[in-house]
Structures are given as structure tokens and as C-alpha cells.
Amino acid sequence: MIRHNKELFDYIAEISRPGALQHFTACSFAPGAHILTEGKKVFSVYIIKSGFVKCYFHTENGGTFIQEFFGEGELFGEIELLDDTASYCTVEAIAQVDLYKISKQDFLLLLEKDEKLNRLFIKTLITKLKYKASRHSYNQLHTIPEKLDRLKSRMPDLTEVIPKQDIADYLGITLRALNRAIKGMTGAV
Amino acid sequence: MIRHNKELFDYIAEISRPGALQHFTACSFAPGAHILTEGKKVFSVYIIKSGFVKCYFHTENGGTFIQEFFGEGELFGEIELLDDTASYCTVEAIAQVDLYKISKQDFLLLLEKDEKLNRLFIKTLITKLKYKASRHSYNQLHTIPEKLDRLKSRMPDLTEVIPKQDIADYLGITLRALNRAIKGMTGAV
DNA sequence: GTTGTCTATGGACAAATGTCCTTTTTTCTG
DNA sequence: CAGAAAAAAGGACATTTGTCCATAGACAAC
Q1: pTM summary value
Q2: Is residue B8 part of a domain?
Q3: In a 3-state reduction of DSSP, which class is residue A154?
């Protein structure tokens, strides 16, 4: 459920170390802080050094949809890399977060110059695509208890780390339905 | 609902014309033919020259999920570009389909040599990501009639082109529910 | 024409999920 | 510590959606 990208993490750590070309800057956010805001322009691409964030947006009918939880090595802001469109989601720090930040222009230049980064970036996009596809289909074709089971098996401490409302938004269900499902799981007579 | 990619289409047409470097081969499939099959290895990347395909897979509980309908200029097979994993979905011709085909190795070389293609490819991946995110959230947070309305407004001749069962699978609902929703739309007293 | 297969349509009922509210528990703040 | 605010839990009911049929039309094969 919380996405990671070790390969990208290691490589960014390597090329951003002191003494190397300094395209990246470091920045930190406290829990609850908004790193990107839906509807506002994006000027940089970010890679997570530590901590984790939730990425979500609101729909016209008042709902909230959680795109993803991102942890170490995950990248965001890339959707707006190639044009001037505003961010389509809000990225909010959950735990204390440290980030690598790089301007869109610099990142584009790096993609041209650094073949390995280029490859890693493409790989990252493909992995995101694949993950989204499997999540989307799973959510559509399974019942709430099944979805919960899957989540629990992938992240047993789920409910201690992430608020119930967020879990519900992630699964695209109501809080009521989530509670019912949790009760059903443990409450076998 | 049927995805297109004019920019990529134009560029591939340009670099694959007779006389240019011949990395691409042409191939055609009749309606109903399987271009890729879930679980089987993928050796090439494909770009659609004409016609359209459906891209779907089966879940362990017997359901079918339609990833996408692809038309002119859309690319597929790219998910398996960087590793040896088997195709995670089946790509089936709906109308007669003509394709550009290029081996994974050649495509990777081209991505290194041809900066413009590299950029276009990244753009294609980003566009797919964005589209998937919006589709996923819309499907999760809206009722069946709302989803149908949206589809109808984007593609009025929908039901004449695509079988009802496919539409239902695309929306992640049952055929019964689809019929009910259609009836509800037109059958206002 | 007859049979068989596929698609479309919809009735009747069951099950899943959402809506609306109330109560309890936890966390935060002064 | 008191009080307010947020998160968790769940009752009762309405609505939506799925399941399981049954029927009817279109088309192909023989």
C-alpha cells in the first residue's frame, strides 16, 4: 500500500551526494504539511528521502480519492513535468518527510544527459502504471472484505499507521462500510 | 473511452517511412485475433496504425477487467519492456488492426539514440498514468448512471460499436446493472 | 425450416453498501 | 484537569447492485 522505489532511491542518493553535480536541494515537511496542492502549479519533481506522504484529490461531488501513499524513493510531481498544467492532486506529509527536490527544467536536462536516470525514470513510470492497473481492477472486481484482507496481508499494522478515514478513501468506500468489514473479520463467532 | 495518441502516431509514421532506418515492421490482425496473450512472453512493442483493440485480463475469481480500448497512435507492450515478465493482459483486435511492431531491444536502442522519441515515450507513459488515475477515481466515486452518462457523452455511438458485455466489464459492473442503467436513462416517464 | 449459439432484455429476490445519526473513546489545547 | 475537537464504532433503514433465472430476437450451419 505504501509504495517504495529502492533502485531510484539509491541512485538519487548517489548523484546528489555532496561533491557531485548539485541539481538537487533538500527540503523537509512536518506532518500535515502540503507539499503540492491540487490546482496549483508545480515547478519541481520530488523524490522521497524519508518519511511518507499521501497523495489525494477531491472530486466535484465532494468525495476524496487517495491516489497513493508514497514512501522512500518514490517520485511525484512527474505528471506535470512536460506541461504547465496545475497539480491534479494534493501531496501531504503524514510522517515527517525529507525530500530531494529538483526543478522541472533541471530534471529534463538530467534526463537527457544521464542515461541511467532516464532508464530508471521510465522504469518508475512503468511500475506505477502496472500497479495502478492491478489496484484498479482489484478494487472493481472484489468485495470490501476481500479488499481489506489484501491490504491487511500486505501491511498488518495498517490501522495503527493510517487513519480509518484514509483507508476508506483509499479503498473507495465509506467509513461505515470499512468498520463493518473489520468487525466481520475479527468477529467470527 | 478509446484512447488515441496523435503525436506519437505522426512521429512513428515519420521515422518508419520507407528509406528511413527500418526498425519497425508492419503487421495486421483480423477482428478477434489475439495480439498479446496474458501469461505469455512479450518480445515487442506495438503502436497502432489503424483500427482498435481491447486490452483486458481475467481475475482469479473469474471476472474480466477491461484495461482500455486503444486506437490510432496508442502503444502497448511497453509494460514488459524492461524485464522478462509475461504479459499481464490480453490485447485483442476489435476492428481490423494494422500495427507498427518493433523488438524490445531495438526500441530500447531507439530510446537512447532518438531524443525526441524518448521524450514522446515518456509523455505517453505520463498521459496513461494520468488517464488511469482519473478513470479509477471516477469509477470508484460515482454511481453507475453517472459513469454511463460520462461514457455516453464522450462516445455517443458507444453501444453500436462495442458489445454490452465489454462496456460492463470496462465499467466494472454486471451486464444486468448496465441494462438497468440504460433503461433508466431513456425511460424517463 | 430447424437447431443451436450468442446477444440483449428484464423479473424477482438476496446481498452489499451507503446514508443518517448517536454514542463512546481518544487526542489535543489551554 | 476541563472542555473541545477529532476519530472510532455501530444501529436502523434506504438504495444500489449482484445473482439467478427465463424469454426473445438475430444469425449461422446444416
Answers
A1: 0.92
A2: yes
A3: helix
